[in-house]
Amino acid sequence: MSKKVKDHWFIIVNPKANGGRLEKEWEHIKQCLNYNHINFFIKKTTHPNHATELTKDAIENGYKKIIAVGGDGTGNEVANGILQQKIIPSSDITFALLPVGTGNDWIKTHKIPKHLETWIKMLKNEKTTFQDVGLVQCFLNQKKIERYFINVAGMAYDAFGVQLSEGKNWHFPKIQYLFHALSGLFKYKIHRAKLIFDEQKIIDYFYIINVGICKYSGGGMQLVPHAVPNDGNFALTFVRKISKLDVILNSYRFYNSSLLEHSKVEGSLTKKIRVETMDDEPTGVEVDGEYIGESPVEFSILPKALKIIIK
């Protein structure tokens, strides 16, 4: 049973966000919160998935309003803490993200401001909405794992690209995400998988498979331009075998919502997706910009499971 509900915010800070620059900016942020009479308690993360642990502890101790300070990865960890705990319904907890990360992709769909004073005004208004959440079940080192995501998941080359960029400090994220998206083409070996959704079973070579709740990933790319965050569906995009030159010549489509207009790109709306291994070559998967495992993978949607602060 949870303890007495606390009315102030529980803030989880990732000091390594934005290439470690948040550590220097945090004192200024804290002063602005105090100046605006925001009541809060702070904990800083020290290791991967620490934000998930801190979130669970906070809810157990009576907090129902939680702020993640960092990027999409920190937001994902806090959301996982909200969804994994079993004390109260996840939709009873209010989640806010102060975006001081690198790509800051999740906020783009919801038009959450990056400017601190504007963001604080939004927080004080406490206007909320609900969005869907995705649940992924996959394997890591032959062990089955589960992970929630709130933005976009990617498989095949998309997961490979995330692995390539791990540990990099992005100063110009849009340019550098695109650089890795294209340069990795010459290192990646495409292989077969079985994609199952609705009544379809497709066995083919897949360049990418993306599953979206929100629209943006990879520093502003729109790989799932048909995503709606609260419609109870996944936006599915997949690309079968395609030439490297074709990818390069059509890279502009990553950013202008026209990706599904390409003849080799297919999209759908669906509630459940499964990707199976073929030819003993597993397909990697990433969620919200973090590599988590490989096929077989199942995606299930939880409609309106997360309550978020919006402008």
Oligomer: single chain
SS content category = alpha+beta
Shape: globular
Main beta-sheet annotation: 6 strands, antiparallel, barrel
Descriptive report:
The protein has 2 domains: 9-128, Rossmann fold (3-Layer(aba) Sandwich); 134-303, Tumour Suppressor Smad4 (Sandwich). It has 8 helices and 14 strands. It has helices at 22-35, 50-60, 72-84, 106-110, 116-125, 157-165, 173-183, 244-249, and strands spanning 9-13, 40-44, 65-70, 94-99, 128-140, 143-149, 152-156, 192-197, 200-212, 234-240, 265-270, 272-277, 284-287, 290-309. Helix 2 (50-60) crosses helix 3. It starts with 8 loop residues before the first strand and ends with a strand.
Characteristic key phrases:
single chain, 311 residues, alpha+beta, Rossmann fold, Tumour Suppressor Smad4, six-stranded antiparallel barrel, 8 helices, 14 strands, 25% helix, 35% strand
Please outline what is shown here:
With 311 residues, the protein is of the alpha+beta class.
List the helices and strands and how they pair.
Blueprint: E1 9-13, H1 22-35, E2 40-44, H2 50-60, E3 65-70, H3 72-84, E4 94-99, H4 106-110, H5 116-125, E5 128-140, E6 143-149, E7 152-156, H6 157-165, H7 173-183, E8 192-197, E9 200-212, E10 234-240, H8 244-249, E11 265-270, E12 272-277, E13 284-287, E14 290-309
Parallel strand pairs: 1-2, 1-3, 3-4, 4-14
Antiparallel strand pairs: 5-6, 5-14, 7-9, 7-13, 8-9, 8-12, 9-10, 10-11, 12-14, 13-14
Helix pairs in contact: 2-3
